[in-house]
Amino acid sequence: MPEEYPAPSEDLQFCPHCAAPLVLRLLPTEDRPRLVCECDHILYLNPKVIVGVIPERRGRVLLMRRAIEPRHGAWTFPGGFMEIDETVEECAVREAQEEVGVHVRLIELVGVYSRPAPAAPGIVSIAYRGRVISGRVSPGREALEARWVRPEEIPWDDLAYETTRWALRDWLKTRRGRP
Fold first, then answer.
1. Residues 6+ apart with CB under 8 A from 128
2. Is the distance from CB of 62 to CB of 146 less than 8 angstroms?
3. Is the pTM of the predicted complex or chain greater than 0.90?
4. First vs last C-alpha separation in the chain
5. Domains of the chain (ranges, CATH numbers)
6. Greatest CA span in the chain, whole angstroms?
7. Predicted confidence (pLDDT) per residue in 113-142, tens digit
8. Over 120-171, what HEC string results?
9. Are the beta carbons of 105 and 89 closer than 8 angstroms?
10. How far apart are CA 1 and CA 14, in angstroms?
């Protein structure tokens, strides 16, 4: 059993089914303490999924500078939280349209990434490689700017997250030997 378990935040104090207080306790069927209610509901603290796409065209990648926190002003590729009613692929396509104004066709999965606590507990990042099929680059409300860059121009020291760096390095590996 992990030595530490995330403490319940203010929004996790009450059962979503009956509104009774949640209590952190070890159940005989579990390997770690869980938030449970007297109505027998178990509130599992599961990760959130972030999906992104690395849009490419003519050997370049489309990066954007974040206009929001966290990491305002840092560079990344389009991506964001997956909605409950979409697939990971649909999320990747949607994020490219919303954040940089382009429509992409997904080519392949680049990778799945996660960082242990305390870096970013509870987040799983999925990155795809995508070919821009239409649209004009037009930064959305979450982007200060968007720019096509050659692989050697990637601003490695100004990337938003470790997962951004890992995905772009893996993207470069997928590009080797391709036109």
1. 51, 52, 53, 54, 89, 92, 106, 107, 108, 109, 110
2. yes
3. no
4. 49
5. 1-45 (2.20.70.10), 48-175 (3.90.79.10)
6. 61
7. 998 766 667 899 999 999 999 999 999 999
8. CCCEEEEEEEEEEEEECCCCCCCEEEEEEECHHHCCHHHECCHHHHHHHHHH
9. no
10. 24
